[in-house]
Amino acid sequence: MRRRNQRAIVWVALGLLVAALSVVAAGCGGGGDGEASTEIEGLGSSLEEIREKAREEGEVNLVIWPGYAVLTDEFTAATGCKVNTKDGASSDDMIALLQSGAYDGGSFSGNATVRLMATGDVAPINTEFITNWDDIQEGIKNQDYNSLDGQAYGVPHGRGPNYLMFRTDVVPEDTNSWGVIWEDEELERYKGKISIYDDSIFIADAALWLKATRPELGIDNPYQLTQEQFDAAVELLKKQAPYVGEYWPGDVVKQIQSYTNGDSVVGTTWPYQYVQLTAANVPVKALKPKEGTTGWSDTWMIYSKAAHPNCMYLWMDHMASPEAQATVAEGFGEAPVNLKACDLTKDPNHCDTYHADDETWWEDVYYWTTPQEDCADDDDSTTCMTQADWKAAWTEIRG
Amino acid sequence: MVESRLTRLFLRLGAGVTLFFIYFPLFVIALYAFNEKVTQRWPIEDWSTKWFSVAFHNESVREALEHSVLAGLGATAIALVLGTLASMAIARHRFFGREVMTFAVILPIALPGIVTGLALQATIKDVLSPLGVKFGLATIVIGHATFCVVVVYNNVLARLRRTAGNLDEASADLGADSWQTFRYVMFPQLRTALLAGGLLAFALSFDEIIVTIFTAGAIQTLPIWMYATLFRPTELPIVNVVALFVILVSVIPVYLAQRLAGGTGVAGGTTQRPARREP
Amino acid sequence: MTSVSIDEASLRQSPGRRLSTFFYRHPRLRLWTLLALPVLWLGVVYIGSLLVLLLSAFWTADPFTAKLVHEFTLDNLRRVFETPVYRDVAFRTIRMAALVTLACAVLAFPLAYYMARIASPRVRNLLVVAVLMPLWGSYLVKAYAWRTILSGEGAINWALGPFGVSFNGYSNTGLWLVFTYLWLPFMVLPIYAGLERIPQSLLEASADLGARSMRTFFRVTLPLVFPAVVAGSIFTFSLTLGDYIAPTLISSDQFIGTVIYREYGTALPFAAAYAMVPIVVIVAYLLVARKLKAFESL
Asked: Are A307 and B228 an interchain contact pair (Cβ–Cβ within 8 Å)?
């Protein structure tokens, strides 16, 4: 009996301990909402001071999409900041990494930036400190995914489409529609050889197909879906799931391998894999189908409590420079946002190939953004499915 | 012998198959380190040692290795202190909460790494960071030490159980103080157990990945570097070389610890485990 | 013993001496001096963190900002138990853990038996080291090695090619193989130790009484060594249950670990709720194992 009592005391003691700890934890949860000050603790007040302080900081820690940090040695030589990078596999992954507090900033897509700006995890920037700011395309500045109330929250990085990619020895070369991964007879034909991006944001790709094929659903923005539209998209994805050969969770190596040996013949991809595969002479073709596609327009943003804010500012500027823009645009296969890069690419036609200056081409590319309950519009009467709903649904689709 | 000739033949065969299964992948990845091409196609067509020099001169590999060694040393040092203290308390005292303590020592290694990692990450972020302990080498050491304690503890406890408790009392009777008793009576008995436990703790820390992912922040250890790099198609040859290096290096402490302690227990002790109740 | 010269005079006054007398008179204090650091570290910091994590299962995360909202709710646990997909994933993971355990036992037995009863002492020692080395060798290197071997262009498909067979290594079958490989040494060693403890005379007695070797094995050896198999299975089972790196590298199916990893960043409360599944299963497994006397064989 006495033993049991003692055990009870231990648990009570542990319980009290937990209570104490959780109070501490709760006290630390607050964020800096709503402030639009570009000041960050330790940041220099002029470009000269930033350069000076950066030498003292000596390093910058970045969360990036794979392949996004380029010319790092040159950057280190010029500024004294060593570059440490961490690849993210999805936007959620990258948000979690940034919120761990260990990073100074990173390259984020719209489905991360909207949330990060709202939580105050990223700070607005002072564009005076970005020497390349004026060279960045005007059409990409001041968008809802990189600014809040007209205040810039980061430096645009580049943009690109999620391609439809297929092996030309298996899939007809003139394929030009997403139907190849959605329609029943096509699914049957390529069963087990379809390759799909493994993230909840892919629900938008289904919504995009429904937008083109089922107008009665009234889908306009594939990221802000009502319950009915959302259910239709999820149903479509559940129908597709048994035919999918691989879901690639940002694991580009696996997808490259599977296309190389023919385990996958059709699916969605980033331009990066397409560039790698064509370089290895694998017979693949990637394109933006006639229904349009999802895509991304990425932004370098600074963590609001960055430990190395000066190096981070210099890094954001570095990535907007023509040299870095040219290197990353060709390396990853995307359109630069600083058109001066177009003179520096190894392939002189790169900017044309990727439609860097052709706004009409981008009209049916829907950049990743965060699903929001208020549908991200001013109309109070509609409600949309949230990010959390998307994630839960994706787990169910994956089974 | 009770086993028939046929049974023995069968066992020999089975043992051979299992051993082959254990060593075949290590052998294959060792070969890939000499693959000249960037693609990982089998069989390897062109051989080269050029990637060794590439890997050797790779700044991030060197840095990651340095972090791994430092983290291993730090974690081992803490584990040695905590493990020894805990095992001495458990072996020589009966006290209230003793069962909870034995349980707490094993928990970090018994629970899934992702649970331990998430728990520690939250504490570091919410409690330690405001106190000035930011994500970095220090937090890796904290994470690793937590699950390394058990191997030191097991080794020392097993040794303490085999040695007579009244030796320290005899030492005290002869006039030695606590430190002298530890230094001249206990330590010589525990030396090899401590060394073995320390080596295994280092090996455990050197190879750990999951808890490290959650506690490292922006710092890379060798496993973290590998886990990031093996998703980059163009850098796989360097990963192969590093993999071979890690295989060769982690063999050393295990071999030495085995020689020193002669134990076969899975958690680094001999055949006894602390969770076992006293009869 | 090395020379410990203690002169009488310094002995009485030395603070160290006074301290040890003090500790001798107050064994409780000596105990708590020993325990203070380990308890602070493991008892307070570690277990405390763990409980705070599990406690957060009763909170919610803002669906948009993912920040924790400290309001008590049972929704997360309800979602774990009521949504079919989380049950499916849990069962898939548990099935995988069971199959891995089975494969490990089947593969480990002949080797352990050979080590314990057939091999000469010299060979035996060599084999113990040979099994121990990969046990401590890098988990990630091993998983990576298999990822390379199992790939469409890897060694296995090359070997199968001439037979016109192709094996999709990046599947649950491939993952099963990898898990079996990763945890195999954890099974070999306890079985080996268990077999070694069986007295030779017992087996001879069985033979003398007329039992054939098969009968001796099933009626004498196996029952005696069973607790050791259970001891090994604790590792093969629990390590499979919580892993997420190997599933990420090899399979593209969801497992408990991958779901927790996917959720933790933006929905920590739910991740914590789901983390209770492997914890409960492992604790239950440990209790059964203790009943079966497996802890004596660890």
From this structure: no
Instruction: Say if residue A20's pLDDT is above 90.
Output: no
pLDDT at B273 over 60: no
Chain B residues with CB under 8 Å of A41 CB are none
pLDDT for res B179: 78
For residue A276, give the nearest of B40, B130, B233 by CB distance.
B233
The sign of the dihedral angle between the CA atoms of C146, C285, C198, C206 is negative
Q: Verify whether the Cβ–Cβ distance A61 to B125 is below 8 Å.
A: no
Contact A254 C168 (CB under 8 A): no
Both structure tokens of C220? 């004498």
ipTM confidence = 0.85
Mean of per-residue pLDDT scores for chain A: 89
Predicted TM-score of the model (pTM): 0.87
The chains in contact with chain A, meaning 3 or more Cβ pairs closer than 8 Å, are B, C
Residues of C at the A interface (Cβ-Cβ below 8 Å)?
A: 44, 47-49, 51-52, 55, 61, 63-68, 70, 79, 83-86, 88, 151-153, 157, 168, 170, 248, 252-254, 259, 262-267
Question: In CATH, which of 1.10.1200.10, 2.40.50.100, 3.40.350.10, 1.10.3720.10 is domain C79-297?
Answer: 1.10.3720.10
Cis peptide bond prior to C84, omega within 30° of 0: no
pLDDT reported for residue C85: 94
For residue A3, is it within any domain?
no
Q: First and final CA of chain C: distance in angstroms?
A: 34
- Which pLDDT tens digit goes with each residue over B120-172? 998 888 888 888 888 889 999 999 999 999 889 988 988 888 776 677 778 77
What CATH number is given to the structural domain containing B181? 1.10.3720.10
CATH (domain of A92):
3.40.190.10
* Tens-digit pLDDT profile for residues C207-233: 888 888 778 888 888 899 999 999 889
A327 to A64, A267, A322, A332: CA distances (angstroms): 16, 27, 9, 8
Give the best residue of B38, B126, B135, B219 to mutate against chain A (max A CB count within 10 A).
Answer: B126
As a dihedral over the C-alpha atoms of residue B28, residue B34, residue B35, residue B40, rounded to 10 degrees, the angle is 40
Among C63, C248, C264, beta carbon nearest to A387? C63
C9 exposed, middle or buried (CB, 10 Å; 0-12, 13-18, 19+)?
exposed
State how far the alpha carbon of A297 is from the alpha carbons of A158, A365, C268, in Å.
Answer: 6, 10, 28
- Mean pLDDT over A43-53 rounds to 93
Has residue A122 been placed in a domain? yes
| CB C130 within 8 Å of CB B33 | no
